Structure formats: structure tokens, C-alpha cells
Amino acid sequence: MMQAFPDLIYEPVTMGTTLIAVQFKGGVAIAADSRSAMGTYVSNRVANKITQITDYIYCCRAGSAADTQTLAEVVQYELDFYEREIGQQPTVRAAANVLRGLCYEYRDRMTASIICAGWDRQTGGQIYNISAGGSLVPQRIAASGSGSLYITGFLDSQYRPDMTKEECAELCLKAVSLAIKRDGSSGGVCRLAVITEDGVEKRMIPNDQLPQF
């Protein structure tokens, strides 16, 4: 196939994407689109950009697919080792700090932007936005990726700290749908996960069932 597209041979698979995380009392809701590309060529329409780190901690990945997949695997290993050695589950902030450290250490060799979100017994639901340079910012609501440019104002206007789990999930779904309609690098289905003390609820909403505006 690549012989038919010679300009794509040296193009890495990237995820110009839409990532969203919203905090509510008792947990967090996270969502992402599913398009990945090699330059202008759409290489995968149903990529999964939401990766499990521990039972209660997930990361949403934007940037180079290879870089962010490897990054997630390294953090999975380190936190699994921590849990076995210490005998307790790592906190969301601990996971975010490991991700931040790796993003900073390899900032010149890696293209990665991460939202780390989850729940722990110490603090409850948390969201940390980790930039490509390695900065870490705790937020109640986070958006990342190319599609975030089109929905930041919408999220700011619609979010309330007292929103329910269902309202946050619906807000994530609407925001991803809006981004897909405006951002040429976002597309495919919407993957949604809601993380609480009771566990993780996952949903996949096909493109033709996304909210219409």
C-alpha cells in the first residue's frame, strides 16, 4: 500500500485528536475520538486513545501513536511494580507525576500530550493535564488535542461543579461530536469512560449516533 503513497512512508502515525475529561462529585468522565493518521492519510478510523493504567486510572493520549503507547506501557509497568512492592494502589497524582517525568525527560525525542484521570480513596476523582513539555496542571475540566481549539469555549460555558455523572458524560459526548464536525484531524467514533469508586463504565458511540447540532 505504501508504494501507492510514497510521501507517507516516513510519516509516523499520529493522533491529531480530541481528548476531554470532566470531574464530578465521586469521579471523572473521559472521552476521545478515534481517528489516527499518517500525514493526510487516515490510517485508523477506530483507534482507542483511552488507555488503562491501573484499575481506577486511565490516560487519554494525543501525539505520536508509537510514543504515547510506549509511554502508557512504561507507566503501567512502574505502577504495577509500585503496587506489588508497597501493597496499596497508587494515587492518580502519583500516576500523573510518573507521566509528567517521562514527558519532560524525553521532551526533545517524543511527541506526546496526555490527560491523566481517575479515582483514588485519598482524593476521589482527579484530572491532570500533562503537556508535551512535561508541565502538569490539575483541572476540573480538561481538553487536549487539535480538536480542543473548537470546543474550549463550549466546555467552559456548559460545565458546572455540581454536575451529575450522567450530565458530565453527556457533556463529553457533545463536545467530542462538535470537535469531530469542525476539526479535520478528529473523527470516527466517540469512546467514553466514567470512573468512580464502583469501577469503570465504558461506552462506544458510533459516528452516526453522535449528537447532531
UniProtKB/TrEMBL annotation:
Pfam families: Proteasome. The keyword Amino-acid biosynthesis does not apply. Keywords: Cytoplasm, Hydrolase, Nucleus, Protease, Proteasome, Threonine protease, Zymogen. One of its GO terms (cellular component) is nucleus. The keyword Cytoplasm applies. It catalyses: Cleavage of peptide bonds with very broad specificity. It is found in: Cytoplasm; Nucleus. The active site is at 17 (nucleophile). Belongs to the peptidase T1B family. Non-catalytic component of the proteasome, a multicatalytic proteinase complex which is characterized by its ability to cleave peptides with Arg, Phe, Tyr, Leu, and Glu adjacent to the leaving group at neutral or slightly basic pH. The proteasome has an ATP-dependent proteolytic activity. This is Proteasome subunit beta. It comes from Varroa destructor (Honeybee mite). The lineage of its organism: Eukaryota, Metazoa, Ecdysozoa, Arthropoda, Chelicerata.
